[in-house]
Specification:
Length: 256
């Protein structure tokens, strides 16, 4: 198997395990897509953590061995796109990328697509596609939204490497920890996310996604019309939260 999974309460851990570099071919991408689609559909699961096996590579991205064997750059990677989840429509649950080593090419693109990104202190991020005669397609779209344009161009056109500390300074990574503490940090973040009301989480993710290109006034109007916003504020959980606070107890979320 190229991917292993582990459930712990409301958290699904997904481990990409394809020695030596956790590169992803089309079949593995479709496998990941099935896993993440199942995660989104399972009401008992609240958060997913994606990491790589070992401590050298999170993922080297597109499997160049498969490419040399004839797999096309524009293969069928599944409905979630390359890596299984970046293009899943209406993602309503958070995904944490726990970057355990080098995130290269498509591996970096997958990490950028996650809702949260924590990294081991030896991790590195780079996009070598222009040096291979292709283009970092998702990176070309995502990276300029995260970095100043001149720095994004340098990374996209020269393969410039960025270490974990620099990535945190630019806001790409939210936390950098020693490699032995990486999964502990990701699990602690997942536990904090699981404490939030599921409909609130879905509303925040959906509204952020659907209003990111709008001005503030238009975004506010769109938010109030958003189906996830209405589902949240009209829910039983919206009554449970204030009631639990007044009664000095933890809320019991029912997702309705």
């Amino acid at each position: 198997m190229s991917v292993t999974t582990r459930r712990e309460g409301g958290v699904l851990e997904v481990v990409l395990d394809r020695p030596k570099a956790n590169a992803i071919d089309a079949a593995t991408s479709r496998e990941l897509g099935g896993i993440f689609a199942g995660f989104m559909a399972d009401p008992a699961l609240r958060v997913a953590i994606l990491t790589g096996a070992g401590d050298r590579f999170f993922s080297a991205g597109w499997d160049l061995g498969a490419a040399a064997g004839g797999e096309a750059f524009e293969s069928d990677y599944g409905p979630g796109g390359f890596g299984g989840f970046p293009e899943l429509p209406d993602r309503s649950k958070p995904i944490i990328a726990a970057v355990n080593g080098m995130a290269v090419g498509g591996g970096f693109e997958i990490a950028m697509a996650a809702d949260f990104l924590v990294a081991a202190d030896h991790a590195e991020f780079f996009l070598p596609e222009a040096m291979r005669g292709v283009i970092a397609d998702a990176g070309t779209v995502r990276l300029p939204r995260l970095l100043p344009a001149h720095l994004a161009r340098e990374m996209l056109l020269t393969g410039r490497r960025m270490d974990a500390r620099e990535a945190m300074r630019w806001g790409i990574v939210q936390d950098v920890v020693p490699r032995e503490r990486l999964m502990g940090a990701a699990r602690a973040l997942a536990a904090r996310l699981c404490a939030a009301a599921p409909l609130s989480v879905a509303a925040v993710l959906g509204i952020m996604r659907d209003t990111e290109t709008l001005g503030v006034a238009d975004a506010m109007a769109a938010m109030r019309r958003h189906a996830a916003y209405r589902a949240c504020i009209d829910s039983d959980d919206a009554q449970e939260g204030p009631r639990a606070f007044a009664e000095k107890r933890d809320p019991v979320w029912r997702g309705r």
